[in-house]
Sequence to fold (259 residues):
Amino acid sequence: MIFNLFVAVDLAIAFFALIVGSYTAYKAYKIDQNSKNKENDEKYEQEKDYHLVSTVGWLTLGTRILSVPLFFVTVISLIPSVPGAMCEFGVFQAGSPFSWIDFGLKLFTIFAFGGWLFIDYANKKLKGAPLMGWLSRMFVLLIPLLIVDAILDIVFFGSLEPLVVPCCMVVYPPGSASLLNIGCPFCYVTYDLPLLMLVIPLYAIALALIVWSLVFRKISAGFAAKEDTSRLLSRAFLVSIILALLATILLVIQVLIVS
Fold:
């Protein structure tokens, strides 16, 4: 295992999110179990506990968003320790397949908790917040993502050894990257088409908003008036269109710069 300060911080944040999330999942489980209780005192306590769950949901999303750039910074810091690795791709290759699975799970976790918070926000706009029990149940079901993420971090960093690995900049000479033959996807985005670092997230958020909106419409069908949900969904679709248009403009600018 190759260990440094960045690896330590990456693992610390992963375990912090896991510990806080696990405690909150216990609260969410109790809310789900008691969600049908109509007594005022119990209802008030459930709402207080759910406020904690909602707050931790935002905290968890924040740590997951932070984990992606931190993950890349950590990988970059390990380049000198992996002979033959001249960029991030080389370190990913050295830790394959755990590196790719770990990175993919981090992105999916952001999507999952982002969707949970989107529905949570929409639920608060509905009369009586009717989806509190469902959201509490879903929060409990999302916690395994944090567990697997922490395990994959340990497995990935633990599998790295100072061994010589073939890297993209060795296998693929400069200028060989193209849309059909990308030797190093990270180098391609970072150095050849840097605006893609904005284009890709914008398209991803726009698509995620559409998916989250469709999920919310389905699960809220039996709990809220159609007029209430239509207003919320219209705003979400409008934001997704704006983000997609902005991403398209940036993409066109990048293409014009390259050409």
